[in-house]
Amino acid sequence: MTGSVVAVSRNGEYSFTKPNRDGIRLLAGLGVEGDVHAGVTVKHRSRVAQDPSQPNLRQVHLMHAELFGELAEAGFTVAPGQLGENVTTRGVDLLGLPVGTLLRFGAEAVVEVTGLRNPCAQIDNFQHGLLKQVVGRDGSGALVRKAGIMGVVRSGGEIRPGDGITVTLPPEPHRPLDRV
């Protein structure tokens, strides 16, 4: 499975959205250089309040650009970076990947998938009603989260729009993604 990078984003301050950049640098074991969520331990405010010593399994937030088309059909306008993601992708079924999948960006950068983003009420502050579009239920009533995935940086390097993405699945049995 291969795909491409549509956009890259980072923000050095806590904010719901992240400005798009010409490129970002991933730092092994830390996350996106200059991003407020980079670090060995958790940086998301709600998780810091629970236990600031937790490992940071949310160093990089990735979102599939295909979601923006789905949201547009429901009347919402969302662009890369506006939901707080660092890397916007195309052509990779991010939500269908198992835990431990390796995503290689360009020649050097590698992110290991840790789980699903658990969207919060801030999404409705951005656009009222959007939360219901990115969190729902499937036919059997199970919760479905569509607001992207999270990962940790295994190998650092630059990521730029247009870079290719190579997917390497972990050994079986595969574990489905759950919220992190």
Any overview of this molecule?
This protein has 180 residues and is α+β, with helices and mostly antiparallel strands. The protein has a single domain, classed as M1 Pyruvate Kinase, Domain 3. It contains four helices and 13 strands. The strands form three sheets. Strands 1-6-5-11-8-7-13 form a seven-stranded mixed beta barrel. It has a three-stranded antiparallel sheet with strand order 4-3-12, with no helix packed on it. A two-stranded antiparallel ribbon has the order 9-10. A hairpin with a 3-residue loop joins strand 3 and strand 4. It is globular and about 40 Å long. It starts with a strand and ends in a 12-residue tail after the last strand. Pfam families: MOSC. InterPro entries: MoCF_Sase_C, MOSC_domain, Pyrv_Knase-like_insert_dom_sf. This is MOSC domain-containing protein YiiM.
